[in-house]
Amino acid sequence: MELTKVLENRRSVKSYEQYHLDRETIYNLLDKAALSPSAWNLQQWKVIVVDTDESKEKLYHAANKQIKIKEASATFIILGDLNAHETIGDVADDWIEHEHIPAEKREGLIETVNRFFESETNKRDEAVRGASLFAMSLMLVSEDAGYATCPMIGFDKQSVIDAFNIEDNFIPAMLMTIGKGEMTNERASRLPASSFAKFE
């Protein structure tokens, strides 16, 4: 499907059919979404895939008992990694191997990244930003593959952390259901670009 059609067709679907989404398909969707951009290619996103009845039950209670958690084939808990910058040495080596930077630039790159992430604000902003870019890509590749999704912020962050033993360096950015379903209501109106864009 061409990108414009994907954007036009994507809707936040809140009611799902009984449908089994196999893990190979899920991995394929996640691999495509991982082409998302991230600062210094740190790829701050991590994902917990909730697709068993037991895990759905836990997430259902942590997400204000929203029934779509149980109905959907799976729900992604999309996390941002506050410590993703600690992989910059591996990123630098990969860039050198692919001739993106010369080897003599390695230490300077590592120093620049580590200095930027001394700020707790930068850590949090980049974790959420990277996870959100990944999430949008995941919604689009899922739509392109014929699956419905719905991003969710209606959950108790600490309950999700506790229920799934999420480590301190990960921030739950959002949940996202996926499965088979459709939205039949007319799309809500969107503001025109002229109302939110400013040229200078």
UniProtKB/TrEMBL annotation:
<keyword id="KW-0560">Oxidoreductase</keyword>
<protein>
    <submittedName>
        <fullName>Nitroreductase family protein</fullName>
    </submittedName>
</protein>
<comment type="similarity">
    <text>Belongs to the nitroreductase family.</text>
</comment>
<feature type="domain" description="Nitroreductase">
    <location>
        <begin position="8"/>
        <end position="180"/>
    </location>
</feature>
<dbReference type="GO" id="GO:0016491">
    <property type="term" value="F:oxidoreductase activity"/>
</dbReference>
<dbReference type="InterPro" id="IPR000415">
    <property type="entry name" value="Nitroreductase-like"/>
</dbReference>
<dbReference type="InterPro" id="IPR029479">
    <property type="entry name" value="Nitroreductase"/>
</dbReference>
<dbReference type="Pfam" id="PF00881">
    <property type="entry name" value="Nitroreductase"/>
</dbReference>
